[in-house]
Design goal:
Blueprint: H1 61-65, E1 77-80, E2 85-91, H2 106-114, E3 117-123, E4 126-135, E5 143-151, E6 156-165, E7 168-177, E8 182-191, E9 196-205, E10 210-219, E11 222-231, E12 237-246, E13 251-254, E14 257-260, E15 266-275, E16 281-290, E17 298-307, E18 313-322, E19 329-337, H3 341-349, H4 354-370, H5 376-404
Organism: Cnuibacter physcomitrellae
Protein name: Fe-S cluster assembly protein SufD
Family: Belongs to the iron-sulfur cluster assembly SufBD family.
Length: 405
């Protein structure tokens, strides 16, 4: 008997209309995308798919289809933990894994299929002070990682994930915020210029719980950190923040997704970035879904980009889906532009030089995010890092001016 030919799988999460023989697949609801923890369930990435169409896929193809080293990163991780925060390594079959979300794309699934043990950060009680986990020294080998952050019910704390050095990394980060908990998670990317970092963050926010989730991307060649934030219990709230500074040739992408499942939930999404140098490219795609049972939702998302030179590109796409009419409010906004001439004129009219005025405008533009992170030490360090970026721009401009004379 001849072997049966396997059927070609349909597009995950969507089907064509049957009415009138129209064969095109309609735009799918955000929550209906295909998910799986197995990389084999995803097709090859061509770069034409919506989730990949902006990205330089060739620069991280090994993370999509290659074999990843999923060994425990105990030698590459150091930590400074506040009282009430613990760190441990757990096996793949631990009950803590898989409680916040499931991969929606191939790179995330490849990391999930490859990791051997997960790093588990547990917050218990009311924790004062920052808990910092540093990842460095990964090298250039393609690697996979998995982190789970658990905030016990009624607990509170700040967890900061810092990344430096070389990397060729695909990872998943799960965040589970228990009922009544108040958790802040900040991920800081200050990789070397050649580093590649693809990350998917999944968060499940409990009843009357609060999560502040922040992404700070200042270094790396390709950095793609995409949070999926699920408000699954009544009274939950999330604040999704992003800060990024893209230099020449650098690619930074964020695709925040907020899913209002339960009633009386609240979300605020605010991402701000600056771009300078030929080939600097940022992508922001914001999705907010207000489900049919999410009565009383209060939601707003925005992305602002400040262009500092020619040759840059900022793609910004806000999306909003509303499936119930009984909400408090929902909206979105996006803008990309150069310096505000009126701001510069005002500062210069007060005796401030044009160069200093531009520095102050950029610092003020990004300070809105920095000041909301809730950590004084981190605020000071990031302010200094932004100043370092601006100093490099000033030095570059001075060199160009000297060459032109």
């Amino acid at each position: 008997m001849a072997e049966a030919t396997p059927a070609t799988p349909a597009q995950h999460g969507a089907q064509a209309h049957s009415d009138g023989g129209w064969a095109l697949v309609p735009v799918q609801t955000r929550s209906e995308r295909f998910t799986s923890t197995s990389v084999d369930d995803f097709g090859a990435v061509s770069g034409l798919e919506f989730e990949w169409k902006f990205a330089p896929v060739a620069r991280f193809s090994q993370l999509l289809s290659g074999t990843l080293d999923g060994s425990e990163l105990s030698e590459q991780i150091t930590s400074e933990l506040a009282d009430g925060v613990t760190l441990s390594w757990i096996d793949r079959d631990d009950a803590a894994i898989g409680g916040a979300g499931v991969p929606e794309e191939r790179a995330s699934a490849n990391a999930w299929s490859s990791f051997s043990r997960a790093l588990h950060i547990r917050v218990s009680g009311s924790v004062s002070g920052d808990s910092v986990v540093r990842v460095s020294g990964l090298g250039t080998e393609a690697r996979a990682a998995h982190t789970v952050i658990t905030a016990e019910p009624q607990s509170s704390g700040i967890v900061i994930l810092e990344h430096t050095g070389e990397a060729n990394l695909s990872e998943n980060v799960e965040i589970v915020v228990g009922d009544g908990a108040n958790l802040t998670v900040v991920t800081v990317q200050e990789w070397d210029d050649s580093a590649v970092h693809l990350a998917s963050h999944f968060a499940r926010i409990g009843r009357d719980a609060r999560l502040k989730h922040a992404i700070v991307s200042l270094g790396g060649g390709v950095v793609r950190v995409n949070p999926s934030l699920q408000l699954v219990e009544q009274g939950g709230s999330v604040e999704s923040l992003g800060l990024y500074f893209a230099d020449g040739g650098q690619y930074i992408e964020q695709r925040p997704y907020v899913n209002h499942v339960a009633a009386d939930t609240r979300s605020r999404v605010t991402f701000k970035g600056a771009l300078h140098g030929a080939g600097a490219h940022t992508v922001w795609v914001g999705d907010v879904l207000i489900g049919p049972h999410a009565d009383g939702t209060d939601s707003y998302e925005q992305n602002r980009n400040l262009v500092l030179s020619d040759g840059t590109r900022a793609d910004s796409i806000p999306n909003l889906e509303i499936e119930t009419g009984n909400i408090q409010g929902a909206g979105h906004a996006s803008s990309t532009g150069r310096f505000d001439d009126e701001q510069l004129f005002y500062l210069q009219s007060r005796g401030i030089s044009e160069e200093e005025a531009r520095r102050l405008v950029v610092q003020g533009f990004l300070a809105e995010i920095v000041q909301q992170l809730g950590s004084e030490a981190l605020e000071l360090r990031l302010t200094a890092a932004i100043e370092h970026e601006l100093a490099a721009i000033r030095a570059e401009s001075a060199t160009a001016a000297e060459s032109a004379e």
